[in-house]
């Protein structure tokens, strides 16, 4: 499957998943551009997920040995000790992710970290807030922030709904908090997408 046809297929899959889950983010008409390619190293089909966590909804699968376009990478829930997840081409606010545990970046690919193109947004917690390795309440807890804590959010994405809010914010240091218990100070963080 060519990079162009994969990008079109991924955008369609993610759009369908967004509609099926009631996601309200606007889907851009042009998919995010791939920064490079990766080869699937899994021995069986690799699951494509809606967020960078094993807990997220399955969107599709990719056959072993396939070459796929990669937009950017992000730290998410650990899969066999590997926290890297790659974003596949899709629209802004839409997303599809594969675990870096089963992907090898191909020579010449320069896959940047997602959400690093803009300045982090200032946020304040509205309750004691659990910090996690991935954007899901079942992902590993790595600590907490006290109510009223001011910090920064690198970027945001849609994942598990918490109290009706599906946004999760990535903090500096690559961990996650639910936006349900966060106030933005000034602007909202940008989407976790590539350049």
Automatic annotation (TrEMBL):
InterPro entries: SH3-like_bac-type. Residues 35-106, 119-185 form the SH3b domain. The keyword Signal applies. Keywords: Signal. Residues 1-34 form the signal peptide. It comes from the Bacteria. The keyword Signal applies. This is SH3b domain-containing protein. It comes from Microlunatus soli. The lineage of its organism: Bacteria, Bacillati, Actinomycetota, Actinomycetes, Propionibacteriales.
């Amino acid at each position: 499957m060519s990079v162009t046809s994969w990008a079109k297929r991924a955008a369609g899959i993610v759009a369908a998943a967004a509609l099926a889950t009631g996601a309200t983010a606007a889907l851009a008409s042009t998919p995010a551009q791939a920064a490079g390619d990766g080869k699937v190293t899994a021995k069986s089909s690799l699951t494509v997920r809606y967020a960078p966590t094993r807990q997220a909804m399955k969107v599709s699968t990719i056959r072993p040995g396939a070459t796929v376009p990669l937009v950017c990478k992000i730290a998410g829930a650990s899969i066999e000790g590997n926290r890297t997840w790659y974003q596949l081409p899709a629209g802004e606010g839409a997303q599809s992710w594969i675990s870096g545990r089963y992907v090898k970046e191909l020579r010449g690919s320069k896959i940047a970290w997602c959400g690093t193109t803009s300045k982090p947004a200032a946020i304040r917690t509205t309750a004691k807030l659990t910090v996690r390795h991935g954007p899901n309440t079942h992902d590993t807890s790595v600590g907490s922030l006290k109510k009223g804590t001011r910090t920064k959010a690198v970027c945001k994405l849609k994942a598990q709904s918490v109290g009706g809010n599906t946004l999760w914010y990535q903090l500096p240091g690559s961990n996650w908090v639910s936006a349900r218990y966060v106030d933005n100070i000034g602007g909202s963080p940008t989407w976790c997408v590539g350049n």
